[in-house]
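Researcher: Structure prediction, please.
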Amino acid sequence: GLNAFLVSMALVPYDENLVPGLSKLHTSSAEFEFADHRLRLAQDWSGLGVAGVIWDAAVVLCMYLELSPVNLKGRTAIELGAGTGLVGIVATLLGGNVTITDRKPALELLRDNVKENIPSDLQGAVQVSELTWGEGLEHYPSGGYDLILGADIIYLEETFPALLRTLEHLSSMESELLLSCRIRYERDKRFLRLLESLFSVQEVHYNEQRDIHIYRAVRLKGKTEL
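Model: Predicted structure follows.
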């Protein structure tokens, strides 16, 4: 099935001459093939740290978007904590109308990657926008997105309440939330429990090779207030 195919897909995102492990994060760019496009994304570990490199959760989420029944054509999507923008770029190439967001320091790298990897005829379908969770949410339409995407965004416990508020603001009862993450710590599970106060959450994919889970969440009926 899909899972076996995802595991066996021969992705070569990193220069294989490098020592495996963290060194892959220090390369200045990473290459991928998604949605019939060859992508080359700039990374900036020294300048941006975790926001400036591509994590496995993003790669697995892109594989999932490409191969699963998730339909992006003509749908509005927003990516939170986008970092290099890989997920948002792939979502755009798959036909979505996508807003790619992160905090201010990451935006320059994000914009460059979008410009380099999105063909000119699709540039109108994507925008890069500043979003710090829980702040300035009025700049984003309430319940305005069909699909909300996040790869490896649940790692700082102090951001959880603001992240949950943000997810609540962006989603309508019809929205679909896809979160891709490695469950590293007890706090990751705590966030999922927090999410379950507002959303019905189910695991839809697990990539064993990379130890990445993808959760799909939809708003619980009748829960409108935190």
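Model: The helical segments are 2-8, 45-48, 56-67, 86-93, 107-117, 160-170, 186-195.
Researcher: Thanks, that helps.
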